[in-house]
Write a structure and sequence with these properties.
The chain has 25 helices and 16 strands. It is an alpha+beta fold.
Length: about 575
């Protein structure tokens, strides 16, 4: 029982398991902090069927016997809280929810009014406010008719832990008994704890209701372990485990509202191999980075922004060890992604509508510090693109494609996204929405060549690059210049046409040939009319290159890449709307 690793079984497959793992890690970290002088750490490692909580120093019996009481989460107070309860809890263990809510609203108002940075810093809400507000959504303390006080289940767990302050060592010892090996016997430990409390003369229940806040797959309903009867009721569990879930929630959960609704989504980190201290530091940055948004776009931004926060942290010189650990791996080797639970508002309560998991990007392999910079630039570009797609105004399918690519690593979904993003981009440019930007060829190359090396010969082919440039100069380049100013026609629908024909090699070659012939013919007409050549002709060698690539890789692969790069922006084309720039590039 006194060892350097403890275990949390994955019993539900939801973030309830993760909360428990983080809660145990936090409790053990507090014990180490009380007895270990100097550096110490706690690491959470995903070992498949369970999480292993590894300690820098093995626990000792003396530490457990003498461990000082640790109040790991606060009691949330509101106007209906029983004053007799708050008198039994130290003031630093109580949070006035209404006061914190007022502070949060003042901050939001200051943001809307574009208040100075100093004012915003002073009014910044507590980093845990979103968690408190999430708990509040399940109704805090209240009074029944007749003046009887009722504690909400979360507060009841906090109060029970606090009221058993003198028996902290007993609670800790039974938790260690349960987690000393995988597949711990919860019922046996709960029985032993109940028996021990009885011996000590303590009258307290050993069970607690499973809250959907911590256990999204379990709630009130018709639940019976045997078919002997069927009654409506709550599911119960050992209360110490539920308390640890409440503790872990503060170290991995990021609840947010779905924009335009009262619904909520809660993102909970799924650790793979992460120290608790690093986790907390990255989480703090992530909480600041993620704001309320629409349902699908918030999933995407959550994954991208957490990855950015992680890479930012790795870049910090003080974490040179973590940077060294990152080499040869990606962020997903430290945090797999996030459990996502969608809570549908039903008025006074909410119901779980969906459980899902969104992975962190799996196309990163950091081989040097420079790779971190490159990947951050790629993520920033993708985030800027995603942010300008309105989910409620025709962008839903686009966002779903991108989410499938991001979370599932599906390249087909990414190419479906780029094929549809081209027309979307041209529509937005037609409305003079120039804040909607294309990908850049540089970052597309980083994305594809770093993660899909077999495709590198296609991107390096001069013929491929020249034809992609021809597509670009027939679509987004004249679009940026404007219809009236461009000497060339804007070819709407070119990307969709190539996408349709790319199912079969011969049809794709025919479609591409038609485009190349009309492209060169248009160049000739403009030259005849103006005496100037603004863009290069497609050469026979370019055609030969692409035909060879289609024979080797297939029309679908080559076509997808041509569309992606054809609707991307060449970084050399900064100031794309400038006539002079285009002329200089093409002459």
């Amino acid at each position: 029982m006194y060892q350097d690793a403890y275990y949390v079984d994955k019993r539900t497959g939801t973030f309830g398991d993760v909360f428990l793992a983080y809660g145990l890690a936090t409790l053990l970290d507090s014990v180490l902090a009380s007895f270990v002088e100097g550096d110490h750490w706690v690491r959470i490692r995903d070992d498949g069927a369970y999480y292993a909580i590894e300690l820098s120093h093995p626990l000792q019996k003396e530490w457990v016997d003498k461990a000082p009481f640790q109040a790991l989460v606060p009691y949330l107070k509101n106007d209906a809280t029983d004053p007799r309860v708050t008198q039994t809890i130290p003031s630093n263990g109580i949070v006035d929810y209404e006061a914190e809510r007022e502070r949060y609203q003042q901050y939001r108002q200051a943001v809307k009014q574009k208040a100075p940075t100093e004012t915003l810093a002073q009014q910044k809400p507590h980093p845990d406010f979103q968690v408190w507000d999430w708990i509040r959504s399940e109704r805090l303390d209240y009074k029944k008719k007749g003046g009887q006080y009722v504690r909400c289940p979360y507060n009841d767990l906090v109060w029970r832990w606090q009221s058993l302050d003198p028996y902290f060592a007993e609670n800790l010892r039974h938790i260690l008994m349960l987690c000393a090996a995988p597949d711990g016997d919860v019922e046996a430990v709960e029985t032993a704890w109940r028996k021990r409390m009885k011996e000590l003369g303590v009258k307290v229940k050993s069970d607690a209701t499973l809250l959907q806040l911590f256990n999204p797959s379990q709630g009130k309903g018709l639940n019976e372990p045997k078919a002997s009867r069927l009654e409506m009721g709550n599911i119960k569990s050992f209360w110490l485990l539920e308390y640890l879930k409440a503790v872990g929630m503060y170290h991995c959960a990021v609840p947010r509202r779905v924009q335009g609704t009262d619904d909520r989504k809660t993102y909970a980190l799924a650790p793979v191999n992460m120290r608790l201290g690093i986790n907390d530091a990255v989480l703090a940055a992530f909480q600041d980075a993620l704001w309320n948004d629409t349902a699908v776009r918030m999933d995407i931004l959550a994954a991208l922004r957490y990855t950015t926060c992680f890479l930012d942290y790795c870049q910090a010189a003080k974490e040179a060890d973590l940077m060294a650990e990152l080499f040869g791996q990606g962020p997903e080797d430290f945090v797999a992604g996030m459990h996502v639970t969608y809570y549908k508002s039903l008025g006074q309560a909410s119901a779980v509508m969906n459980l899902s998991f969104i992975e962190l990007p799996r196309w990163m392999r950091v081989e040097s510090p420079n790779d971190v910079i490159l990947y951050k630039e790629v993520i920033e570009e993708h985030e800027n693109i995603i942010r300008n797609i309105d989910e409620d105004k025709g962008g839903y399918d686009l966002l779903v494609y991108y989410r499938d690519f991001l979370s599932g690593g599906k390249w087909k979904a990414f190419f479906d996204f780029t094929a549809d993003y081209g027309p979307f981009l041209m529509r937005e440019l037609d409305r003079e929405h120039h804040w909607v930007r294309p990908f850049t060829t540089k970052n597309l190359e980083v994305l594809i060549m770093k993660s899909n090396e077999p495709l590198a010969p296609i991107l390096e082919s001069p013929g491929f690059r020249n034809i992609a440039e021809a597509i670009r100069r027939s679509t987004i380049t004249p679009q940026y210049r404007g219809r009236s100013k461009s000497e060339y026609d804007i070819r709407y629908g070119l990307g969709q046409e190539l996408k349709r024909k790319s199912l079969y090699n011969d049809e794709f070659i025919v479609a591409l040939g038609d485009f190349m012939q009309s492209y060169n013919a248009e160049n000739a007409r403009v030259y005849e009319k103006t005496g100037k050549q603004y863009r290069r002709n497609i050469l026979t060698t370019d055609v030969e290159d692409v035909v060879r690539l289609v024979d080797k890789y297939g029309a679908t692969t080559v076509g997808n890449l041509l569309i992606a790069f054809g609707y991307a922006r060449d970084p050399r084309e900064e100031g794309l709307a400038s006539d002079q720039t285009v002329r200089e590039l093409t002459n």
